[in-house]
Amino acid sequence: MTLFGVEHVLPRDQEMDALAGTELREQANQAVAALSAAVGEGPQPLYGRVLKLLNLPRLSGADDHDLREILRELRICEQEGRGAYRARLRRVTRVDRPGGIGRLPRPRSVKGASAPGTCALCGDGYTTGELIGRPPFTEELPYVPIGWLCWHCLVQRRQVPRRRDVLLRVFHALFAGVEGVGLNGHESGVLLDWLTEEPALANSKPWTADPLENTLVRLRTSAADANPATWLSAQTAHTIVAVLQEAPASPSTTPRDGETLEALVQHLAEWETNPADVRRAQYGTGWRYRQRVLQLTAHPTFLSARGGPFHLFQCRVNPSGQLVETE
């Protein structure tokens, strides 16, 4: 017998991770109803608390990522006592974000993590209580919603980008099949430093085949002028990845940077060679094809596990190219 007498309603962690879709939604509805009866608060006010936490007008707008986090919160409320749910079902409303070209859109929901987990974008771990959040999602296909993000990816990744943050932008832009890869001045500076850290890279085969001198000039200008958006063609992005693959080990390149680069190289090759024989007649040659190739990869990576493609946001600019500040 549990504190609220509803242990049968709230699934254990392993069961929760396996739930999806309609079954997961039914569990969420049952859990809210059962806890409502147990704590003596009406179902509608309790639903209101859940919706305020998720910052959604109705529960039908919650996806599987939202519902799993809510179920974990309800389970903790069960364990901690009758008064716990009031404090736990409350989102963080004050979110300090950088201004200028590093500013990301206001998150849809921010809360303390109910359990240890991994960021849905970069794969870094977070601990219980660390702030995590869901970004707003208004994009149409090919983009799919990102799950819960760590604080860096939610707020800081365009202001103080790491090398793997730049690689993630390349991956998801090529995944989606957009015209190119857009980098702000901070990201341009990170990529410029990486490409020029070892002078011998200019003599590498991929650089010789597709020279990057003009690209370096554009990246240097973007970094110096804090440009909101500098676009690199898909071909240039492929060349850059091939060049970085030949870069020697560096203290500036972390193991996670290296892991991301290795995964990116692998999946770019798989999209080119189609080792799983994905039927192009069924999936075409665009993002659906690339998504299916990732799903069938014989060598899963943290990139294939997270899926996508994800919309990683571009700065808004006016017709003269000046930054339009994001709300």
Write a structural description.
The protein folds into 3 domains: 13-88; 100-154, no CATH class; 161-324, no CATH class. It contains 15 helices and 9 strands. The protein has helices at residues 13-18, 21-39, 43-54, 64-80, 84-88, 151-156, 163-176, 185-196, 205-209, 213-225, 234-245, 255-273, 280-283, 287-295, 302-306; strands at residues 109-112, 117-118, 125-126, 131-134, 149-150, 180-183, 230-233, 316-317, 323-324. The radius of gyration is 22 Å and the shape is globular. The chain is mainly alpha-helical and 327 residues long. Helix 2 (21-39) runs parallel beside helix 4, helix 7 (163-176) packs parallel to helix 12 (255-273) and helix 8 packs across helix 10 (213-225). The model is unreliable at 1-10 (pLDDT under 50). The strands form 4 sheets. A 3-stranded antiparallel β-sheet has the order 1-4-5. A two-stranded antiparallel sheet has the order 2-3. A two-stranded antiparallel ribbon has the order 6-7. The longest helix has 19 residues, at 21-39.
Fold blueprint:
Layout: H1 13-18, H2 21-39, H3 43-54, H4 64-80, H5 84-88, E1 109-112, E2 117-118, E3 125-126, E4 131-134, E5 149-150, H6 151-156, H7 163-176, E6 180-183, H8 185-196, H9 205-209, H10 213-225, E7 230-233, H11 234-245, H12 255-273, H13 280-283, H14 287-295, H15 302-306, E8 316-317, E9 323-324
Antiparallel strand pairs: 1-4, 2-3, 4-5, 6-7, 8-9
Helix pairs in contact: 2-4, 7-12, 8-10, 11-12
